[in-house]
Amino acid sequence: MATVLITGASTGIGLATALAFGRAGHTVAAAMRNPARSPELANVAARERLPITVFTMDVDSDASVVDSIARIGETIGAIDVLVNNAGIERMGSVEQLSLADFRAVMETNYFGVIRCIQAVLPAMRARRSGCIINIASVAGHIAMSPMASYTASKFALEALSECLAQEVKAFGVRVAIVEPGIIDTAMSRHIGSSEAHSPYPQQRRNAALFAAVLTNPAPASLVADKVLEIVSSGTWQLRHPVGPDAAPFLGWRNQMNDEAWVDFGALDDDAWYERVKADFGVDARPAS
């Protein structure tokens, strides 16, 4: 059994992943920014007597990451598996979204991952064993307005993970990228309900697409089960799309060249909704 650190474990994919590992008998360090505001995981762990300990960690802070990982080592032992799940989103056109929002997304989704990797990797490398799993997204391959800040962070995470995998394989450390599609989480629900006040139509159309997909929701447990499978199987496979729409989304984008993708995103509303329905089989047009 492994000792597993999961970041962003307060809700959604992180919470589901912590429970999946705990129920499988692994020792879990569940990290979150403010445990007092997110008691659900601790309550379930206590009720089911699972080997899950909640730790306070802010992945945006160098000191918080270093101190928390030191405390985890002292409390439950060396970390065998790191699951970088903590993430945020900000929706808006490139023109309108503030630079502060762009920075906030990159700070958590990209630099936060680097902080955690740099804190755990020396010990993994010395032991010549370990597993680092980065929760990316199909958005790491598909740039769709108005998700520039989020997709940029996930594109960056994909590149980081690919480089890291090359560096650490000789030391027996596995790296995997998990790429969920639209999963039923608070983040996805927020995107699907966001109201746009913009001259650009893409935000309301993207929200409508998320809302339409979430009428048949894919649970966070699908991602949790995939992460557990990666650890348990010992696979060296790098990328793992997960969820019923992940592979179709990736295939949809790959069937278009870059210019065709730009043209698709620039369509007027009626044509855009018709293309989504024809190409992806989703009727995202809001009811009139």
Low-confidence stretches: none
Instruction: Work out the helicity level.
Output: 40-55%
Q: Which structural class is indicated by helix and strand composition?
A: alpha/beta
Calculate the terminal CA-CA distance, rounded to whole Å: 54 Å
Rounded radius of gyration (Å):
19 Å
Number of helices: 11
The CATH H-level homologous superfamily: NAD(P)-binding Rossmann-like Domain
| Strand coverage percent | 5-15%
Which CATH class is shown? Answer: Alpha Beta
Fold-level CATH name: Rossmann fold
Count of the domains: 1
Number of strands: 7
> What's the CATH architecture?
3-Layer(aba) Sandwich
Arithmetic mean pLDDT: 96
For the structure shown, list the relevant keywords.
288 residues, Rossmann fold, 13% strand
Summarize the structure.
With 288 residues, the protein is α/β, with parallel strands linked by helices. Helices cover 51% and strands 13% of the residues.
Compile the SSE list and pairings.
Layout: E1 3-6, H1 12-23, E2 27-32, H2 40-48, E3 52-56, H3 62-76, E4 81-84, H4 99-127, E5 130-135, H5 148-168, E6 173-180, H6 186-193, H7 202-213, H8 221-233, E7 239-242, H9 246-254, H10 258-265, H11 269-280
Parallel strand pairs: 1-2, 1-4, 2-3, 4-5, 5-6, 6-7
Helix pairs in contact: 1-8, 3-4, 4-5, 6-7
Describe the protein.
The protein is of the alpha/beta class. The chain has a single domain (3-184, 218-255), classed as 3-Layer(aba) Sandwich (Rossmann fold). The chain contains 11 helices and 7 strands. The chain has a 7-stranded parallel β-sheet with strand order 3-2-1-4-5-6-7, sandwiched between helices. The radius of gyration is 19 Å and the shape is globular. The protein starts with a strand and ends in an 8-residue tail after the last helix.
